[in-house]
């Protein structure tokens, strides 16, 4: 079956702009999580959605937001972009979340965002 | 603030050597712990997770980790590494707080 897909794969924006990234989970998966990866800060958790509801949120400013649609596809939005938002944004999906024994999550290839 | 520490930044091992990567977390109470791996050119993968129960957790690819509450540790182990285990390994933890990752340990396995 198809894996987690993320679009676009690469993106260049300028400071002050906003950006929307998309994540399509594996078919049947209802949990989608977002992460930011940078050389300086490493991996950081952004948020998790399950059945259109935000279930967990990391320590990011309100400029970072997300949503999940009824088909489980998810988007994340960053408004008023800053240079420090340049990063690889990863999305992962799972059936119901990692608390379920035996369940794992699958990551997408990421969207590489460069803010100039 | 809650934190996860990985003290080894780069580990170099010969094939067939045993592996132990350290991970320490800073918070008490209920804790959920994870190990992730990122192979060169591949997507991030979840190796194993701990929520409760047996403190010895077995994951994919022959990896295991032991949750030692008294030491606030969740070290990753593998009895015999292969060249294909060359990757970056991340420990992560959460409790009543958002998930926090360690800085990662780069493992290089040489023939």
Chart the SSEs and their pairings.
The complex is a heterodimer of chains A (116) and B (111).
Chain A: E1 5-7, E2 10-13, E3 19-24, E4 31-38, E5 42-50, E6 53-57, E7 64-68, E8 74-78, E9 87-94, E10 106-107, E11 111-115
Parallel strand pairs in A: 2-11
Antiparallel strand pairs in A: 1-3, 3-8, 4-5, 4-9, 5-6, 7-8, 9-10, 9-11
Chain B: E1 4-5, E2 10-14, E3 19-21, E4 24-25, E5 32-38, E6 44-50, E7 56-58, E8 64-68, E9 73-78, E10 87-94, E11 100-101, E12 105-110
Parallel strand pairs in B: 2-12
Antiparallel strand pairs in B: 1-4, 3-9, 5-6, 5-10, 7-8, 8-9, 10-11, 10-12
- What integer is the average pLDDT of chain B? 94
Number of helices of chain A: 0
Topology, number of strands of chain A: 11
Gyration radius over CA of chain A:
14 Å
Helix content of chain A: under 10%
Overall number of strands of chain B: 12
Order of helices and strands of chain B: EEEEEEEEEEEE
Instruction: Give the helix level of chain B as a range of percent.
Output: under 10%
Number of helices of chain B: 0
The poorly predicted ranges of chain A are none
Structural class of chain B, by secondary structure, is mainly beta
Overall spatial form of chain A? globular
Describe what this molecule looks like in 3D:
The complex is a heterodimer of chains A (116) and B (111). With 116 residues, chain A is mainly β. In chain A, 0% of the residues lie in helices and 52% in strands. In chain A, strand 7 (64-68) and strand 8 form a beta hairpin. Chain A is globular and about 40 Å long. The termini of chain A are far apart. The mean pLDDT of chain A is 95. With 111 residues, chain B is mostly beta strands. Chain B contains no helices and twelve strands. Chain B has strands at residues 4-5, 10-14, 19-21, 24-25, 32-38, 44-50, 56-58, 64-68, 73-78, 87-94, 100-101, 105-110. In chain B, strands 2, 5, 6, 10, 11 and 12 form a six-stranded mixed sheet that branches. The model of chain B has no long low-confidence stretch (mean pLDDT 94). Chain A binds chain B through residues 3-4, 35, 42-45, 56-59, 90, 92, 98-99, 101, 104-110, and chain B through 32, 34, 36, 43-46, 49, 51, 90, 92, 94, 98-104.
């Amino acid at each position: 079956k198809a894996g987690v897909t993320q679009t676009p794969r690469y993106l260049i924006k300028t400071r002050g702009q906003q950006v929307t990234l998309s994540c399509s989970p594996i078919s049947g998966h209802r949990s989608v999580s977002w992460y930011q990866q940078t050389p300086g800060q490493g991996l950081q958790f952004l948020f998790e959605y399950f059945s259109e509801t935000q279930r967990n949120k990391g320590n990011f400013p309100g400029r970072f937001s997300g949503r999940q649609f009824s088909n489980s596809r998810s988007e994340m939005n960053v408004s008023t972009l800053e240079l420090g938002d340049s990063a690889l944004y990863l999305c992962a999906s799972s059936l119901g979340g990692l608390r379920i024994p035996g369940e794992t999550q699958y990551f997408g290839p990421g969207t590489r965002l460069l803010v100039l | 603030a809650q934190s996860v520490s990985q003290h080894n930044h780069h580990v170099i091992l010969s094939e067939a050597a045993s592996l132990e990567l350290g991970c320490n977390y800073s918070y008490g109470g209920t804790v959920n712990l994870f190990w992730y791996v990122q192979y060169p050119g591949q997507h991030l993968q979840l190796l194993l997770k701990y929520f409760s129960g047996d403190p010895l957790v077995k994951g994919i690819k022959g990896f295991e980790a032991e949750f030692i509450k008294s030491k606030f540790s969740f070290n990753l182990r593998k009895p015999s590494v292969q060249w294909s285990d060359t990757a970056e390994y991340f420990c992560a933890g959460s409790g009543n707080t958002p998930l926090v990752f360690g800085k990662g340990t780069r493992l290089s396995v040489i023939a």
